[in-house]
Amino acid sequence: MLSKSAFCYSSNTKKMSDCVHPCPCGYHGDSQKPCTCAPAVVTKYQKRISGPLLDRIDIHIEVSRVDYEKLSGDRLGESSEAIRKRVQTARDIQHNRFTNSQSTDVLCNADMRIGEVRQFCKLQPEGQSLMRAAMSQLNLSARAYHRILKLARTIADLAGSEEIQSPHLAEALQYRPKLMMV
Ligand SMILES: [Zn+2]
């Protein structure tokens, strides 16, 4: 699937990762191959997969084609072990958060219900104004609002921050689908 440009998403917990192509031919936004769809067709196609479906996805990242040279090169990114350690630390923070609260059935941020979101995803004034602006400009649903807060909480946990700070929230907002931001 990654040979084409795609909106890829990995759902928060148990579900499989999946990909949604950006247009019927699959090349809309591709750096090397032109999309052959008429603009109106692309818009119609994106509208069809947008709304409720995209709303249920936590992280939207447009993934472009990767050159063979980049994949086969010796240049290494962060090692899997290092990433695993970082993620485990964030998971431990979440586990402690919920076992020390009334919500012992919640294991991680993704499991939070509205009550936990209210309790653990408080925003500071700066974050509140950012969220207020995003809500109106991006026309976010209540579901999207809670998803963004949960994601921001996780980003803050990964950063080792007790508070959700504006950069954490901004990063979470960035993962909303671009086509819904138009
Ligand atoms: Zn196309």
Question: What does it look like?
Answer:
With 182 residues, the chain is mainly alpha-helical. It folds into 2 domains: 61 residues, no CATH class; 101 residues, no CATH class. A 3-stranded antiparallel sheet has the order 2-1-3, with no helix packed on it. A hairpin with an 8-residue loop joins strand 1 and strand 2. The chain is globular and about 55 Å long. It starts with 5 loop residues before the first strand and ends in an 8-residue tail after the last helix. The site of zinc ion (ZN) has 8 residues, from loops.
Keywords:
binds zinc ion; 182 residues; 2 domains; globular; 8 helices; mainly alpha
Brief overview:
The chain has 182 residues and is mainly alpha-helical. It has helices spanning 39-49, 52-55, 68-72, 80-99, 114-120, 125-137, 142-158, 166-174; strands at residues 6-9, 18-20, 61-63.
DSSP helix count? 8
Level of helix content?
40-55%
How far is the N terminus from the C terminus? 26 Å
User: Would you tell me the structural class of the helices and strands?
Assistant: mainly alpha
How do the strands and helices of this protein lay out in sequence?
Layout: E1 6-9, E2 18-20, H1 39-49, H2 52-55, E3 61-63, H3 68-72, H4 80-99, H5 114-120, H6 125-137, H7 142-158, H8 166-174
Antiparallel strand pairs: 1-2, 1-3
Helix pairs in contact: 6-8, 7-8
The structure holds zinc ion.
